[in-house]
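User: I'm writing a tutorial on reading structure tokens. Could you give me a worked example: one chain, its sequence, then its tokens, then a sentence or two explaining what the tokens reveal?
Assistant: Sure. Here is the example chain.
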Amino acid sequence: MTTGELEVGTTVATDAPIVVKLGGSALKTSASLDKIISQIAALALEGKQVILVHGGGPHISKAMEAHNLKPCFVNGLRVTDDATLMTVYSALGALNAEIVEALRANGVDAAGMHAAPDLFECVKAPCMTLANGNVADLGWVGKIVGVNPGPLRPFNSRVVVVSPIGWDNYRNRFNLNADHAAMALAVALGAGALVFLSDVAGVLTDTSDPSSRVPLLNESNAKDLIESGIVCGGMLPKVDSSLRALKAGVGRVCMADGRQDSALLEVLSNTGRVGTTICA
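And here are its predicted structure tokens:
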């Protein structure tokens, strides 16, 4: 397979911000969080600015269980009624504060932005038509229609931690898909790199074989994998978001298992040893 044109060993320019999307699945244990925090600290010490957008699916589901609320998903999106929205808001706020505290404990000048009113401009996500013909209303799930990076600029911090909560013109809060939020923010900032850290090793040509990981892809290869059905399931929206980010000017998009040692630093250095990098 012909891969992208990015050469092994190419790193991200110092003056270009790096947007890292940290999936809740990579935050399940303190050990996983500690690994990621130490790598972000290393980037900050190198003079790089990092915008960390975190999910929190497992944390939200656990909080919902404590309040006797039953999680419900449609096409991977959490149906968010009034009670669920309050739980999402509270759980993400606590997680945001925990990540900021961990960064500061590692000597990082970090700031938290939880549900910043002017960052993500949203409208209510449209209802979804299911395979059986029924129509599902997602409730307080937002569709991002604009990003204003202005609220990030007053922070001189090397690392800003952002939760995926958006607002509409009527000051209603919305639960956002964290992958979409990270992509939109990376585009708005002209990021040098967008990195998705989760519990997935990268793009695999055989999902049952970790050794089938594809280290480097260009746009054409990625589209071929989508059309052939090799990229499917939860990887499909990540690859689709990656291609849209690249078209909008983001330097590169990387996916890696955040639980692996040095996964973030490895994909940013483009060693080819972990994850998948997609370049224009």
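What the tokens reveal: The chain is about 30% helix and 20% strand. The first helix runs from residue 30 to 45.
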